[in-house]
Amino acid sequence: MALNTNGIIARYWHFNIWEYSFQFLYNFVFCLLLFYFNLSRNRFFGIFRENKQWIRFYLANTFLIAVFFIAGSTIHYIFFGTVHLPGTMIRGYFARFLLSTIMIAVVIRLILLMRESRNKDQINEQLQTAYLQAQLRQLQEQLNPHFLFNTLSSLSAIVRENPQQAQFYIVHLSKVFRYTLVHTGNDLVTINQELLHLSSYTQLLSMRLENSFQINIAISQETLQREIPHLSLQPLVENAVKHNIATISQPLCIDIYNENNSLVVRNNLQPLPHETEGTGLGLINLGERYKLQIQHEIEIHTTKEYFIVKLPLL
User: Fold this and answer.
1) Which positions ≥6 away from 120 have C-beta within 8 Å?
2) Pairing with 217, which of 80, 117, 169, 267 sits 20 to 30 Å away (CA)?
3) pTM of the model
4) Sign of CA pseudo-dihedral 267, 283, 152, 172
């Protein structure tokens, strides 16, 4: 209407690009400062909001709006005078500041809700992480006494049968325990590291079972660098030895090889006539650690000839 030189409004209200540029920039600065003072953490108006001092919070915002309203209208009058229709400058400033304040209040509320939601997500994630770590620690605490009981039981038998060989058994046993102490909790290790540890453990089994135990490993070089949870292979070998016949005429054979995206541990199935008492803690423990650490479950298959466990690889 102001640009229309033949219109009635143009007689009283002339368009001035500098005037409207000033109004735009001034209103823009007002909006930025209102955002800054209200959304700053532990500063300015944010302190009142975080401490739920609502009276101070609203008074501070009202004061800021009033200061900007008075300063803006005064500066506008000094530089541009009153070229508008009588009274329109004050009403225009009031309308603009009222509309800007309402819009900014809505946006600030949305931002605060998003912050609150994000904070809740972070807290939930931290609680979930703490819970998983607590579970892993509990599983680790279960695993160590379980392994200790089995190895000391074997050691007592070797000491009775061959005291000299018991010394070598203790050397390899110390290597096994060193590995369990160096990597604890939710560590992930390469298959190559796990196999190096397993070699010490299989030495213990070979001393105990002699020619009635065989282990065959066929894993590609690329797969050796893939990762699995710490102490994944030992419980499977231990489980096979505990629940199957292992004699010279019926040797226990364990095969470890990679297949697709899994590491397969397979032993020939020849159950003991009278199953030894056990809780199955090693296999249960391994399954729980896989679900917690890599969010995948191990696969367990039993055929007429084999007991097979497939471990997902990272």
Assistant:
1) none
2) 169
3) 0.52
4) positive
